[in-house]
Amino acid sequence: MKRIRSSVFSLALLLLVSASAFAQTRRVSGRVTVEGSGEPLVATSVNVVGTAIGGYTDDQGRFTLTVPDGPVLLRVRRIGFVQKNIPVAAGDQDVNVALSRDVLELETQVVTGAATTVSSLNAANDVAVVSSEKINRVPTPTIDQALQGKVAGAVITQNSGAPGGGTQIQLRGTSTILGAYSPLYVVDGVIVSNSSFTNGLNVVTAAGSGTASNFAGSQDQIVNRIADLNPNDIESIQILKGPSAASIYGSKGTNGVILITTKQGRAGENQIDFTQRFGTYRISNKLDIRCFETVGEYVDWTGSAGAALAADSAAFNQATNKCHDFQQEFYGSPQPLSYQTIASLRGGTNAGTTYFASGLVQHDNGLALNDFYNKQSLRLNLGQAIGTRAHIRTQTEVIHSLTQRGISGNDNFNVNPYTVFSGTPTFFDLQKQGDGTYPKNPFVLGINPFQNADLIKTPQENYRLIASANGTWTVLNTTRQNIDLMMTGGIDAYNEADRVISPATSYFEQTQANPGTLFNGNANVRFANLTGSLAHRFTTNGFTATTSGGFRQERRQSDLVQVTGRGLPFAGVYSVGQAVQTFPSENLSLVKDFSYFVQEEFLTLAERLLVTAGVNAERSSNNGNQTKFYGYPKFSASLRSPWVPPTVGDLKLRLAYGRAGNFPTAGRFTFATTVFDEGIGGARLSTIKGANEIKPEIASELEGGLDLSFANGRASLRATQFKKTVDNLLLQASLASSTGFSSQYINGGQLSTHGTEIGLDLTPIDMGSFGWQSTTTYSSAKSKITRLPVPPFNPGVGSFGTTFGNVFIQQGQSPNVIQTFVGCKVPLSATGSCASANKIIGFAGDALPDYQMGFTNDFRFGAFSLTSLLDWRKGGHGINLTNNYYDGGLLFEDTTASIARLAGLAAGQPVYVEPNGFVKLREITLGYQVPDAVASRLLAGHAKNLRFEFSGRNLKTWTKYTGLDPEVSNFSNQAVGRIQDVTPYPPWKSFFFSINTTF
Amino acid sequence: MKRYTFALLAGVLVAAGCKDSTAVIPNDAPTADALAGALTKSSLQTLAIGLMAADRQTFVGTGSAYPILANIYTRDIYRLDPSEPRYLNETIVATPDRGSFAGGGGWAGQYVTIRQANTTLQALGNPSPNVFSAAELAAAKGFAQTFKAIAYYRILEMRDTIGVALQKDDPTDTNPADIICKKNMINYVAALLDSANTNLVAAGTINFPWSAFPSGMSAFGRNYRSVPNFVLLNRGWKGKVDVYRGLDHQNPNPAMFTAAIAELTQALGGVAPGAVSPSTFATGMYYVFVPAGTEAAPNPYSDTRIGINTALDSLRAGDTRASKIVTRSTVTIQGITLTKTLARAVPNAANQAAPLAVLRDEELVLLRAQAEFEAGQFVQGYADLNSVHTNYGLAAYVPGVDINQARNDLLYDKRYSLLGEGVQRLVDLRAYSRLNAANYPKQTATDAYNSAFPIPKAEFDARNGNVTPTCN
User: Fold this and answer.
1) C-alpha atoms less than 13 angstroms from C-alpha of A160 in its C-beta half-sphere
2) What whole-number distance in Å separates Cα of residue B258 and Cα of residue B246?
3) What contacts A119, CB < 8 A, 6 or more positions away?
4) Within A473-607, where are the H helices?
5) Which residues have a Cβ under 8 Å from the Cβ of A444 and sit 6 or more positions away?
C-alpha cells in the first residue's frame, strides 16, 4: 500500500513538472581524459549541477549537452576517479576535463536497497568496498582468505592450515549464539550458499563421540562453500556490516551481507588477460619437541615405564640413532609446485552485446603427502541492450573443485598425525622404509600416520552452477523522471560429494573391529531466488526523490545422504554396499521465504543531504508462525557539510538505524526420536525440546560516523561507532538433564555489541614515478549478554569441558567468555591435586580480540611496486589442548613448562587458556611492470601489458601463543567458542611468482 | 503515462503472482505427535521398544563410557587412549570434571529411560477404548515401573551419596527436579519395584500386550515376555537393591538382608542355597548388540583401547575364568602398562555383537550369598558361593564364620564371574570401604581414589550451584 501511495505521489510530481519547459538553451561539448596519460575516459557521467541535465561520454571520451543559457557548473564523475566540478562561463562551448585516478577510492556506488545505489559520498552507512585489485594482490586459495586484514570490522579466521578453505568471517562482533553465524553472500544479486557439510572424517577419527560413530557436526575441518568462487572474476565486493545497512535482507541480514559483483563485458576492443602463477606452500610453524636419538636416551628419560615399549620398538628394529623431526618429515617434505592459470576475455559489440568470459585452473598442494586443492572455474557473463530502454544480463559460473585435506583436529582413534606424534619419542623412525613398509608404532597402538597418509583418501568433490539473470526496463526516462522495472533471478545448485576411503590394510584399521572404512556423503543443495522491483527517480532543481519497492522470493533446499561402511573384505573394492556393516543417514531441508520491501531516498541541499527510510516485511517457513510477516525497518541520514575549512575536501556526518533478523535454524518442533532394539522399531521423545512459537532474532543497530577527505584528496578518514542490540536471542538453553531433555529452544535474552571502526587512507608521496599509499584499519567490538531469562548455561557448541575451558552464557558477561577452573578453595602442596568439589569455577579471558588493525602500504618506484599487509589482532584467548597432548608424555622440549602445566591442571588452574593475539605479515608483493616497448618486443607485438610479481602470504607471525597457530579452531562452524586448538593441521606460508599480460 | 501505468500494474501483478506459500512440514523425522493420542497396542509397542532401547542405549555410544569409567575407578578394566587422556585424568590421576563426559557420565541417558517410562505410564492412563484388558494395562505398568526403577538404581550406583534427581511424572516438565539423598532414593527405588511387582502379579499369567520382544529379553533361558517370568526379573532387581540397602555405608540397614534373601530366592525360582544348577547361571536379562545399520549399537567393550592391569591381577591358578582374559599388545600411558585385555574386548565383528548380561542367575546366586553372609548365614552363604566357585575348576571354600574372610571370598568370585558386565565391583568396594591405598596401590602419583561421579554441570547450572541432596 505504501509503495502504491509513494508511486502516486511521484506520478503527481511528474505531471506537475512536465508542464514546465526550459526557456533558452545552448550546447556545450567536450572531452574527458585521464590525467597524466591523456587516455579518453568512456562512460563518464557529466551533469549540470542543480538540474536533471546530464549524459555520458562516448568511446572517445566526448560528450555533448544542451544546457541553459548563462554560466553553469558541470559535475564530471566516474567511478575510480576523483570527481571534478567545472564552471562553464556563459560563452564557453568547449570544455576539456582531465580526471585523476581515485587512488583512495573516495567515491563508489554503494548499495542501499534491492534496486538502488547511491554514491559513497552520500552513503549513510560505512559500506566497505574491496576492489578486484585488492582481492587478487596475493594468490590465496579462497576468496574469504583474500579479505583478511582488509575490512575494518571483520574478524576472519582460518580454522587450520589444511588446503582448500575452511574460513569464517564475523562482521561487527558476535550477533548470535546459536543462530546462523555467517554473513549472507550475494553474487550479482543472487543469494548463494555458504553452507558446510561434514566431509566424513569422523568415521576414522571418532571426533565428537569417542566411539565408532559415523557422522560428526563441526569438527571435521569443514569447508564453507563460498570457497568455490573464483576471486579473479570479482569486480568488487561491498560489505554491509550490520543490520542498519542490511535490513533489506530481512532475517538473513543480522550477520551482515557480502555483495559480490562479477566483471562484465564492455564495449570496445577485445581485451584478453592472462595470468600464470607458480608457487609453493610451506609449513610456517612447528612445535618444539624433545630430541631422543637413541632408545637408551628415551629409557633414561622415562624410567622403567618406557622400557617395555622401548624394547618393543627395538624389536621392530627401528631405532636408527637419529632424532626424527616428525613434523618436518610429515608436513615439510618438498611438494611439486602449486599453480594458478587464469585467462579472461572482455569486450562488446556495436550491437549492444557485451561479454566477459573467464577460466581458472588452480592446483594447491597441501603440506602433507596426498593433500591438495584443485579448482576449475568457467564463467560467461553476457549483456545485451534491447533498444534504448531495456537491458538484459546473464552471469553463469560453473565450478569444479576437488580437495583432500588430510586428517587433523580432534581424534579419538589416534589417526591424526599430531595425536600420534604426541605419544611417540623421536628416536623412532615412522617413515616409509626401503622395502616399502611402514614401521608399526608400538607407542600408539601400532598406528603410523605416514602409512595413513599413503593409504587413506579423503576426497571432497564439488560441482557447482551459479547462474543469474537481470533484466532492466526503463519504463520512463525524461530529464526529470526515471522509472526502472527490474527483475533478478538466479540459482545456486551444487553437489558436494565427500568420501573417506580407508583400506583395511593400514595398522590403524587393524585396530578396528571391522577393518576398512568407507564414507560416502552426498549433499545436494539448490538455492533459487527471484527479486522484482520498481524504482522511480524524480529530480527537480531542489531534490532527487527515489522511490523503490518490490518483492523477493527464496527457496533453499538441501538433501544430505550419508552412508558409512565398515569392514572391507576385498582389497580395492570401495563400494559401500560391499562393506560388512553399513550405516545410512539422510537429512532433508526445505526453507521458503517471501518478502515485500519499499524504500524512499531523498537527496537534497545540492546533493549534500540524503535521507532514507524503508521497510522489509518477510515471512519464512523457518518461523514457528509461518504466515506471519516480520518487519525490518530502516532510517538513515547523511549530511555533507557545506562549511568546511579550505584544507578539507569533504566532511560528511552520517547516522543510520536499522533492523535485521536471524532466522531460527531449528526448534519449531519437539521431535520423536526413532530407535531400534535388535531391529525392532520404537520411538521416544527427543532430548531437545522445541518451541512452536519460535521466531527470528531481531537485531537493531544504530550506526553513526563521519567521513573526511582532506589534503587535496590525498587523505581520507572514515570513523564509525555502532551499537547493535539483538533481542529474542535464539538459544538452545541447557536443561537439567534429569528432566530427560538436554536442552530446549527458546527465544529469550538480549545481546548487545558496540564497537568502533576507523579507516585512514593516505597518499604521503605521489611524485610521478615514486608513490606511497597507506591504508590503516582499526576495529573493535565488545559484546555482552544484557538479559538472560534462563539460568546461565554452556551453549550447545563444541568444547572439552570446564577443565580446559568452554564458552558460558551468563548475563553481564561476554558471550565469548571462557569459563574454566581458576583455582582451588583449599591450600595445596606444590604437587597437590584439587578435588572436584573444591575447584573454583571462574572466567579466564575472552575468545574475541580487544581490537584488530590492518596496515596496508603500497610503494611504487617507477616500474617497481611493493605492497605489504600487516594484520594485527590484539587480545583474545585460545585453548591450547595440543599442549595437553604432549604434556602427558613429557615429549615437549620444554619439559619444565609441561610439568608446570600438569601441576597447574591438577590444582585447578586454567593452564591451557592462552592469549592468542598476533601480528602477521599477511601479504607482501613485489611487482615489476615491464616497459611497454620491451613487453611488445617480448611478445611479438601482441601484448599491451606485461607484469611480473613475487608474492608471499603468512610469511611471519609474531605471537605469545605457544601453539601452532593462534587462529586455529577445532570447532569452527559456530558463532561462539571458536577457540579450541586440538592437534590441528599446521599453518602454511606461501610464495608465488606471477606473470600477468594483457593482449 | 500508459507505459508507466502498465509497469506499475506489471510490478504489482508479478509480486502477487510470485507470492508463494511459506508453509513447510518437516519430512525427515517424526514429531512428538507420533507418540501422542490414545494408546493402542501398536503405540504401546512403540513406547515399550523405545523404553528397552533407551535402557540399552546407556551402554552404547557416548553412554558406553560410564561402565568403563567405573571399571577404571576399581582398577579392573582400563581404557588407555592417547587421544583421550580424560579416561585416566578424571579417574585415577585426578578428580572428575562435572562438565566433561567423564564426570558427567551415567546420568542423562538414565533420565531419558526414566522419561520414556513416565511417557509410557502417562499413555497407559489414556488407553483406546476396548483395546486392552485391565490385566494387560497392569502388566504394562509394572513393566514400565521396573525399568524406571532400574534406571534410578543405576544412577545411585554411580552417584552414591552425591544425590539423585527425582524426575517429575510429567514427561514434558522441564523444571529441575529435587535432588534426593541416597537413603530416600534407594527406598524410593525399592518401593517402585514393589509397586511394579504388585501390578505384575495382578496381571496374572499373561504375556505383555505387544508382540515384538528383543531376544536379549526373551532368548537367554527365560522369556520375559511372559509376565510371571518378568516378575522373577523384578524380584531379582529388588533383591539386588535390598542387598545394598543393607550395606549402605552411610545408613546401613541389616534388616534388608533377610528380605533380599527371600526376593533373590524367589527370583531363582525358589531353589535352595547351593542348589542352583550352573547350567542356569547364564539365564537372565541381556543386551543384544547390533553394531551396524541405523541401530549402530556395538558392544562397548569391543575396543582396541580396552585393557586389564595385570599388576592387580589376582586370578588363582586353575580358575577357568582365565579364559575371559587374553594377551594384548603392550600399551603404556602415564605409567600404566597393560598387557592383557578381555577376550570380549578384542575388536572383531563377533565381539561387537556379543551380548552383555544385565542381570543373570549367577549374579543372583552371588548376591544371595552376599546377603546370607551379611545376615550371618555362613553355611547358606558358602553353599551358594561354592556353587559358583567350584564351577570354575577351583576347590570349594571351607565355610567359616569370619565375615571379612567371607567378603574376601565373595568379592573374588564376583570380580571374575562378573568381569566387565557392570559396575558391581565399584559398588561393592565402596560399600566395604575398600577403595583406598590400603587395598590398592596408587596407580599414579596423584591417584585420588574416586568412588562416585559428581552431579553433572547442566544440573549444577540449572540450580545455580545448589546440588546438596535433600533428606527428609
Assistant:
1) 29
2) 9
3) A77, A107, A108, A109, A110
4) 507-510
5) A414, A419, A420, A423, A424, B82
pLDDT in tens, B322-374: 999 999 888 877 778 888 999 999 988 899 999 999 999 999 999 999 999 99
- Judging contacts by C-beta atoms under 8 Å, the chain A residues touching residue B172 are 685, 689
Q: Which of A442, A534, A793 sits opposite B8 (nearest CB)?
A: A534
ipTM: 0.92
Cβ atoms of B126 and B38 closer than 8 Å: yes
Contact yes or no for B62 and A672 at CB 8 A: no
Kindly state the cell numbers that stand for A713: 584528496
Angle of CA points B399, B405, B407, to nearest 5°: 100
pTM, two decimal places = 0.84
Adjacent-strand bridge partners of A237: A130, A260
Cell of B459: 544440573
Whole-number Å distance between alpha carbons of A141 and A365:
10
Q: Classify A433 as helix, strand or coil.
A: coil
- In angstroms, what separates the C-alpha of A551 from chain B's closest C-alpha? 6
pLDDT per position as a tens digit, B256-304: 999 999 999 999 999 999 999 999 999 999 999 998 887 888 898 988 8
Cβ contact B50–A683 (<8 Å)? yes
Pairwise CB contact (< 8 Å): B462 & A534: no
Nearest to B103 among A736, A836, A906 (CB): A836
Q: Which of A952, A883, A921 is nearest to A288 (CA)?
A: A883
In whole angstroms, what is the distance from residue A387 CA to residue A161 CA?
A: 52
* All three cell numbers of A929: 611492470
CA distance A449 to A455: 10
A821/chain B closest Cα distance in angstroms: 10
Give the closest residue to B419 by CA, choosing from B305, B343, B353.
Answer: B343
SS3 content of chain A, % helix, strand, coil (to 5): 15, 50, 40
Q: Do A739 and B174 touch (CB under 8 A)?
A: yes
Contacts of A550 in chain B (CB under 8 A): 11, 15
Which has the closest alpha carbon to A222: A464, A453, A493, A408? A408
Query: Nearest CA of chain A to the CA of B315: how many Å?
Result: 23
- What's residue A1's pLDDT? 40
Q: Could you tell me which chain B residue has the CA closest to the CA of A530? A: B18
- What is residue B469's three-state secondary structure? coil
Low-confidence ranges of chain A (pLDDT < 70): 1-23, 36-37, 42-43, 50-52, 56, 59, 79-80, 101-107, 115, 208-220, 303-320
Strands (E), B117-168: 164-165
Contacts of A351 (CB under 8 A, 6+ apart): none
Distance of CA A726 to the CA centre of its chain: 22
For residues A520 and A491, the answer to whether their CB atoms sit within 8 Å is no
Report d(CA B18, CA B11) in Å as an integer: 11
Check CB contact under 8 Å for A680 and B214. Answer: yes
Strand B306-308 and strand B179-180: the pairing is unpaired
CA A493 to chain CA mean position, Å: 20
CB-neighbour burial class of residue B249 (10 A; exposed 0-12, middle 13-18, buried 19+) = middle
Question: Which of A14, A558, A684 is the mutation pick for testing B, counting most B CBs within 10 A?
Answer: A684
Contact of B302 with chain A, judged by CB distance below 8 Å, is answered with yes
CB count, 10 Å around CB of A708?
18
CA distance B3 to A571: 71
Question: Chain A contact for B68, CB < 8 A?
Answer: no
Residue B108: which of A668, A742, A802 has the nearest Cβ? A742
Q: Is B211 on the interface with A (CB under 8 A)?
A: no
Q: Are strands A94-99 and A806-807 parallel, antiparallel or unpaired?
A: unpaired
